[in-house]
Design brief:
The chain is about 0% helix and about 50% strand. The chain is mainly β and about 300 residues long. The chain has two domains: about 210 residues, Jelly Rolls (Sandwich), CATH 2.60.120; about 80 residues, Immunoglobulin-like (Sandwich), CATH 2.60.40. Strands 1, 2, 6, 7, 9, 14, 15, 16 and 18 form a nine-stranded antiparallel β-sheet that branches. The protein is globular. The N terminus is likely disordered.
Length: about 300
């Protein structure tokens, strides 16, 4: 089975109301043809030396509706990978409730006996480890499996298959007790919720054995977050933001801080300090990062950091 390494970071829980959002990669949503990297908050897998993969793009070759879709494409400059790590990830503007969340999308894979194509919802557990909340994959031989635990073990859905070059709608319902998977609105698998953490974002990845997948019409709905899901970060302030050199951290006493960390949007820790009022970020390249501040009461406060 395959383990997914390219997962994103926690954003602040700022809302508590029912919401619905859609992504269909159209020009009306300010998407343009070409790389998905940095379009509307998307982050494409890095290829080394600060560069990113070139073939993860908005395409007009296929669409389940409208004109554009995301093409999770084969990368000919690289070999096959042990795990699905080639693709793109997106953090939600606000994390979503694991007690009431519905996520759906259309997918079309071009060929069998190529790559495995996974879509994973992710979060952070009590140990500050990234974990899958739910996930489903188009397995290379035409089967479909779900991610069935935090170790990414596969559950192959009996009698579930996908057909090359045919659009398939997938829906995942997440509740406090269960994960439900639907194919073209038919319930095909139910299992218990094995993480019960807020859902921070999702990714679309493959292991580069061949073929492409097209994704379109993502839609997600979330109900009210419970009080226990919310981290109170109202006192934390960082400035200036965007920042060039030195970042000031206020609102929390330095003696109450046990750890300050900076992550990129692929979940890689780039810096770690303890009990600081100011942080030298001059060596970071320009881009979007996440700043995590852990206090001695065990709470994690997170802010989006923009580096000039």
């Amino acid at each position: 089975m395959i383990k997914n390494y390219a997962i994103g970071l926690m954003l602040l829980l700022t809302g508590g109301v029912f919401s619905q959002e859609t992504i269909s990669f159209e020009t009306s949503e300010s998407y343009t043809l070409g790389t998905l990297n940095n379009q509307n908050g998307w982050e494409v897998t890095e290829s080394g030396d600060g560069a990113f993969l070139q073939n993860q793009v908005i395409s007009n070759e296929q669409a389940s509706d409208g004109t554009y879709s995301f093409k999770n494409s084969y990368e000919s400059s690289f070999g096959a990978q042990f795990a699905p790590i080639f693709g793109a990830a997106k953090n939600f503007d606000t994390p979503k409730s694991f007690e009431n969340f519905t996520f759906s999308y259309d997918v079309m894979v071009t060929e069998t006996f190529g790559a495995d194509f996974e879509v994973t919802l992710f979060g952070i557990d009590a140990n500050d480890d990234f974990v899958p909340v739910a996930g489903i994959a188009m397995e290379n031989q035409g089967q479909i499996y779900t991610i069935d635990n935090i170790y990414y073990s596969a559950f192959y859905i009996e009698d579930a298959e996908w057909t090359p070059n045919t659009w398939l709608n997938i829906k995942i319902e997440v509740t406090a007790t269960a994960l439900k998977y639907y194919l073209n609105d038919v319930l095909v698998h139910t299992r218990s919720n094995f993480t019960s953490v807020a859902i921070l974002g999702f990714n679309m990845l493959h292991n580069n054995y061949g073929g492409d997948a097209y994704y379109d019409n993502f839609s997600y709905e979330s109900g009210t977050l419970s009080v226990d899901d919310v981290t109170d970060a109202s006192a934390l302030r960082i400035y200036p933001n965007p920042v060039a050199d030195e970042l000031q951290i206020t609102g929390i006493q330095s003696e109450d801080i046990t750890q300050v960390s900076v992550y990129n949007l692929n979940g890689q820790q780039l810096m770690e300090r303890t009990s600081v009022d100011a942080l030298d970020v001059s060596r970071l390249v320009s881009g979007v990062y996440m700043l995590n501040v852990v206090t001695n009461d065990g709470k994690t406060h997170t802010e989006k950091l923009l580096k000039k």
